[in-house]
Amino acid sequence: MPIRISDAMPTRDILESENIFVMTEHRAMTQDIRPLKLLILNLMPTKVVTETQLLRKLSNTPLQIHVDFLQTATYTSKHTDKSYLDQFYYTFDQIRDRKYDGMIITGAPLDYVPCEETVYWKEVCEIMEWAKTHVHCTFHLCWGAYAGLYYHFGVEKLDMPKKLFGIYKHKILMPQSPFLRGFNDDFLAPQSRATDVRLSDVEAIPELEILAVTETGSLAIAKTADNRQVYVTCHGEYDKDTLSKEYWRDMEKGLTSVDLPYNYFPDDDPTKEPPVTWRSTGQLLYSNWLNFYVYQSTPYDLDEIK
Question: Which long-range contacts (CB under 8 A, 24 or more apart) does 197-206 make?
């Protein structure tokens, strides 16, 4: 899939070095098609890393995508230069009159922080409410999933006594779902969170369908019956070394109680390079979302989104 982003974004060079087709604005304007318009609300502190991971996965179908990036106005990232954000990111006031085929709300490092105590909680709620009438399908990822389930359905997020950290098997509960087309019956994917919800709370919501759970019995993928919202707790977009970097970062902070990532390092030896066992899962996760829940059902005229 040709990805349309600003020609000046550092992410472009990274993707092109991997032979991922990044289309220039000039070339895009000469194609007589309507690109899918996606918005990514990037709440992660490492903006460029998250941009690259997501765009890499969104690039694997033959459609053209125009991607806008959104930041919060109520909190400015301490890990990304303001000049970078000003150049490549919008604030909500700048895009509130636009409509999008799809939106991704990313995770955020907010384990053990109640939603209402999050600095930008009111702003994120405003964006999620706006998305009901301005976005055809919203993909809530990790913290974004828990925020969405709480805001839209009142499902309380819970603190886990021990972090779910590593590569876990996931069990499919609805194999007939297009969202899971091509997946193995049990698929591997990274998890990195100390937040959870009760499955019974999700099951009690008539509008929600649980598609997959972790081998530990935790929610992995859910969606609304009308396919306008999906909720995903696993990270199919993670790089090979994402969990390794997180592990060593925590160790360097002196958090000696940190466990090794489960099922990740060969022989549980953190000096050994971990294999990627979730790459195909990640490609299917984002490609199926784009194909079945965005491209095939979004109106051609975005003004028809309601």
Answer: 197/146, 197/149, 197/155, 197/156, 197/157, 197/158, 198/155, 198/156, 198/158, 201/155, 201/156, 202/149, 202/155, 205/153, 205/155
Query: Which residue shows structure tokens 């070394």?
Result: 241
Query: Is there a catalytic annotation at residue 137?
Result: no
Show Cβ contacts of residue 235 under 8 Å, excluding neighbours closer than 6 positions.
107, 141, 142, 189, 190, 191, 192, 242, 282
Question: From the candidates 134, 137, 140, 142, which is the catalytic residue?
Answer: 142
- Closest C-alpha to 200, from 181, 177, 219, 179: 219
SS3 154: coil
Q: Which of 134, 209, 235, 246 is labelled catalytic?
A: 235
Spans of all domains in the chain: 3-238+279-304, 241-275
Q: What mean pLDDT comes out for the span 240-266?
A: 88
Is 235 annotated as catalytic? yes
Question: Does the annotation count 237 as an active-site position?
Answer: yes
Tokens of 58: 């969104």
Q: What is the spatial distance between Cα 243 and Cα 201, in angstroms, rounded to a whole number? A: 29
What number does CATH give the domain 3-238+279-304?
Answer: 3.40.50.880
With a cut of 70, say whether residue 201 has pLDDT above it.
Answer: yes
pTM above 0.85, yes or no: yes
